[in-house]
């Protein structure tokens, strides 16, 4: 959520990693207890046998009986659930209602960031085992029917999927049933003017851009790829389109981008309605993670306050379920 004032900053001590396994759905730690008014939204009715073509591919007569039974089982569950503003299976042991869903569309990425992926890449899951377009649409509809009002598409890099505009458009149709926000987390490399305009037209409301430095040479070193200007152009275009939320995710690594880069990002927000989120360096297979590379939260605050003495905590802005602490430069 954008912070008040000319400068916005969210310093994080442990956000969810930007990548998740493709084809899996995760409910992140940053959840919100949001009540939904039934008077302003149409109740969502789960698909019936006659309307499942949008969600379930037709099964030919030659398909084995177990698959037929599986399809019928899905329809039976849909009929039993019916329209429910909140679902018990989306409420945790602390009685918090989970309303935020993240869907990982792919493992593929067009960058090779030092902290995320080996230079030669990683073994990829076969495409046949990933969520198809219709499966993403169906899962999103099911979760919205149970109280989810915010969906974020992630990866890997979601923009490498050619059906991303179609997926966003299908999610947009769920807004009449309670969905309020549609976001993506992207590195912005392939999100050119034309593609971003299409996504916004199709219903995109929130954009998180992964960018760890404002120095083009440092960018090439950290990502092992070129394209720094393309990312900056993506951010500027998002602001020009008037997206309600534009955030930059910065993974901070000690000795690499924990001093000048941090200050540069804070200064970057001075005249732009952007939220910067500093994210903890997380361990991944093959990223040579070391505890010595972690940057403590207090170190970040001290670094910023040396350049901006008025840097202050924003009172009463942290949601009880937030994984970040909100700060600003007045």
UniProtKB/TrEMBL annotation:
<dbReference type="InterPro" id="IPR007197">
    <property type="entry name" value="rSAM"/>
</dbReference>
<feature type="compositionally biased region" description="Low complexity">
    <location>
        <begin position="26"/>
        <end position="40"/>
    </location>
</feature>
<dbReference type="InterPro" id="IPR013785">
    <property type="entry name" value="Aldolase_TIM"/>
</dbReference>
<keyword id="KW-0004">4Fe-4S</keyword>
<keyword id="KW-0411">Iron-sulfur</keyword>
<keyword id="KW-0949">S-adenosyl-L-methionine</keyword>
<dbReference type="InterPro" id="IPR000385">
    <property type="entry name" value="MoaA_NifB_PqqE_Fe-S-bd_CS"/>
</dbReference>
<feature type="domain" description="Radical SAM core">
    <location>
        <begin position="93"/>
        <end position="321"/>
    </location>
</feature>
<dbReference type="InterPro" id="IPR006638">
    <property type="entry name" value="Elp3/MiaA/NifB-like_rSAM"/>
</dbReference>
<dbReference type="GO" id="GO:0046872">
    <property type="term" value="F:metal ion binding"/>
</dbReference>
<dbReference type="GO" id="GO:0061798">
    <property type="term" value="F:GTP 3',8'-cyclase activity"/>
</dbReference>
<keyword id="KW-0408">Iron</keyword>
<keyword id="KW-0501">Molybdenum cofactor biosynthesis</keyword>
<dbReference type="GO" id="GO:0051539">
    <property type="term" value="F:4 iron, 4 sulfur cluster binding"/>
</dbReference>
<dbReference type="Pfam" id="PF04055">
    <property type="entry name" value="Radical_SAM"/>
</dbReference>
<protein>
    <recommendedName>
        <fullName>Radical SAM core domain-containing protein</fullName>
    </recommendedName>
</protein>
<comment type="pathway">
    <text>Cofactor biosynthesis; molybdopterin biosynthesis.</text>
</comment>
<dbReference type="InterPro" id="IPR058240">
    <property type="entry name" value="rSAM_sf"/>
</dbReference>
<feature type="region of interest" description="Disordered">
    <location>
        <begin position="26"/>
        <end position="47"/>
    </location>
</feature>
<dbReference type="GO" id="GO:0006777">
    <property type="term" value="P:Mo-molybdopterin cofactor biosynthetic process"/>
</dbReference>
<dbReference type="GO" id="GO:0061799">
    <property type="term" value="F:cyclic pyranopterin monophosphate synthase activity"/>
</dbReference>
<keyword id="KW-0479">Metal-binding</keyword>
<dbReference type="InterPro" id="IPR050105">
    <property type="entry name" value="MoCo_biosynth_MoaA/MoaC"/>
</dbReference>
């Amino acid at each position: 959520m954008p912070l008040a004032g000319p400068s916005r900053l969210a310093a994080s001590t442990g956000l969810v990693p930007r990548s998740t396994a493709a084809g899996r759905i995760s409910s992140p730690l940053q959840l919100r207890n949001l009540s939904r008014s039934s008077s302003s939204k149409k109740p969502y009715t789960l698909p019936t046998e006659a309307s499942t073509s949008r969600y379930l591919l037709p099964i030919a007569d030659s398909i084995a009986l177990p698959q037929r039974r599986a399809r019928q089982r899905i329809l039976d569950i849909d009929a039993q659930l019916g329209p429910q503003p909140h679902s018990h299976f989306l409420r945790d042991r602390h009685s918090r209602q989970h309303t935020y869903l993240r869907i990982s569309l792919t493992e593929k990425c067009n960058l090779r960031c030092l902290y995320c992926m080996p230079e030669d890449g990683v073994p990829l899951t076969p495409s046949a085992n990933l969520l198809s377009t219709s499966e993403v649409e169906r899962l999103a509809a099911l979760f919205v029917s149970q109280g989810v009002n915010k969906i974020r598409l992630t990866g890997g890099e979601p923009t490498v999927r050619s059906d991303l505009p179609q997926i966003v458009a299908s999610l947009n149709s769920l807004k009449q049933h309670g969905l309020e926000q549609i976001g993506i987390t992207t590195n912005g490399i392939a999100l050119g003017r034309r593609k971003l305009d299409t996504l916004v037209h199709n219903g995109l409301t929130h954009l998180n851009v992964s960018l760890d430095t404002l120095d083009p040479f440092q960018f090439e070193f950290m990502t092992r790829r070129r394209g720094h200007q393309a990312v900056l152009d993506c951010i500027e275009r998002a602001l020009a389109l008037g997206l309600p939320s534009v955030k930059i995710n910065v993974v901070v690594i000690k000795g690499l981008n924990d001093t000048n880069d941090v200050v540069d990002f804070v200064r970057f927000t001075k005249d732009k309605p952007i939220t910067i989120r500093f994210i903890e360096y997380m361990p991944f297979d093959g990223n040579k993670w070391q505890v010595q590379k972690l940057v403590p939260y207090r170190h970040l605050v001290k670094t910023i306050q040396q350049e901006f003495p008025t840097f202050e905590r924003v009172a009463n802005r942290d949601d009880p379920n937030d994984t970040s602490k909100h700060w600003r430069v007045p």
